[in-house]
Structures are given as C-alpha cells and as structure tokens.
Design brief:
Belongs to the mitochondrion-specific ribosomal protein mL54 family. The chain is mainly alpha-helical. Helix content is about 25%, strand content about 5%.
Length: about 120
C-alpha cells in the first residue's frame, strides 16, 4: 500500500467525535450563566481529523509492528497538508505544460469512450 493511497483513505480514528451545537434558547442572564464561545480562528483550526495520540487502524501493515499513533499537526511536514490538492499549471501559450496535460487527458477519455463503445 503506497503512502499516497493511505492519504486518500478517510481516517480510521477510534475516538468518536461528536459535534455539539449551541442551543437555540437564549442564554440566561446572571452570574451562573455560561458565555457563548466564539468559533476558533482559522489559524488555530486543526489540520488533521484525528486527535494526537489516536490509534490509527490499518496503517501498520508489518507483522508484529507496534500500533501507529497520530502525532500533533506541528510534527508533520508542511507539504503533507497540500499533497492531495490538484496541480495547477500555468498556461504559457501553445505547447505549454498545461496544454499538454489537457490534451493527454482528452486523449485518454477518447480511448476510454472508444473501448466502451466496442464492448456494446
């Protein structure tokens, strides 16, 4: 199993995460009332979907290997969070990399369509 295939799979966390929503009732006034928390800013939002220390099932594929635990977001390399984003090629005119990639994808689709029609 390749590393990229593992990244494409949804995480298998053993910790169940439940979302808690604020009630629609207005907060009571007084000293014992709890203040409504503001949502966290984007900079503090965790990048991974598993909490630190979560046992990741299916990642250890060697026999007798210790269970793999999730690390903190800051311990992973920064390129990991952008690994699954599609590549963006700049269009520099005729013969550019973007044009070649587009032409190749179109040719692959034509071949798939032709092969499908030959089976019908």
């Amino acid at each position: 199993m390749s590393f990229a295939r593992i990244l494409r799979q949804p995480p298998r966390c053993l910790v169940s995460v439940t979302r808690r929503y604020a009630s629609s009732a207005p907060a009571a006034t007084g000293s014992d009332s709890t203040a409504v928390k503001k949502p966290a800013s984007d900079s503090t939002t965790p990048l991974s979907s598993c909490l630190e220390g979560t046992k990741l099932e299916g990642v250890n594929f060697l026999k007798g290997q210790a269970p793999v635990l999730a690390m903190g977001d800051d311990q992973y390399p920064s390129w990991l969070w952008t690994a699954l984003e599609p590549k963006v090629y700049t269009d520099d005119g005729p013969g550019s990399k973007a044009e070649r990639v587009k032409r190749r994808a179109e040719n692959k689709q034509k071949i798939k369509d032709r092969n499908f029609m030959s089976t019908q």
